[in-house]
Specification:
The protein is an alpha/beta fold. Helices cover 44% and strands 13% of the residues. It has an 8-stranded mixed sheet with strand order 3-2-1-4-5-6-7-8, with helices on both faces. Helix 6 packs across helix 9.
Amino acid sequence: MVAPTGKTVVVSGGTDGMGRAVALDRLRRSDTVVVLGSNEAKGRTLQETAGADASRLRFLRADLSLIAENERVIANIADHHRRVDALVLCANRQSPRRQETAEGLEFVFALYYLSRYLLSYGLRPQFEQAEAPVIVSIAGVGLTAGSIDFSDLQQTSKYNAIKAQLQAGRANDLLGVAFAEQAESRARFVMYHPGFTRSGDVSVLGPVTRTAIRVLAMVGARSVDKAIAPVLGFLDEPPQAPLTARDRHKTVPSSLPTLDPERARRLAAHTEALLGRVRGSGEALS
């Protein structure tokens, strides 16, 4: 039997895969869990699966690819929870073709990176009320493929689905570095790469790609339970260091070019400019 912890945990992308597994585990530990997701039906299914623990589960339906929706969710959490002990960032979805959100931003960049930026910074007042707050971003830290195209963050030319995922992944690496540099935040930032895992929603992909991924997953992917074990450890015992980068069970060296502090500060400045532009006029900034 697991020991109860009584924490408040927010999970983005918590109706599928690893996010869902983390949410259900924390509910079994008597935590209060706020799950963010775009699919109302999956939210109801999660409530049903939680059973007797569902009284401590709040599902907030939101399109996290939209700045306004992230800000609505942040305000809702602040209204209902004085304290947030942990934020687990899982929301991500591939897009075979370039899509723009209603706010004029490239979809993958907005969902995979920008929502994590907004939630991490937006929930800082709630982190400050926690004894040992922690943010766990589940992405691909340790990978060196992909780069940030500062001249075209929204990939308006020559969009490629893999390139979009890699750019957003490298942006998440830099988000962790920039966040950890802020002495005023007590929250510890953990970047965790679970490796190839039998997790996530592949319904947006073409039938050939979906089938290939499912076959490969059956042969070589880690189970969700194994993949989330380190995440649960980070929630139980947050690291002391401001930033932790882990590729499965190996520590990622901070000297990697993908974790360069100067580039992290540059991306943060670009992100703030983009947010200001979209909030002010509804126009995206590349």
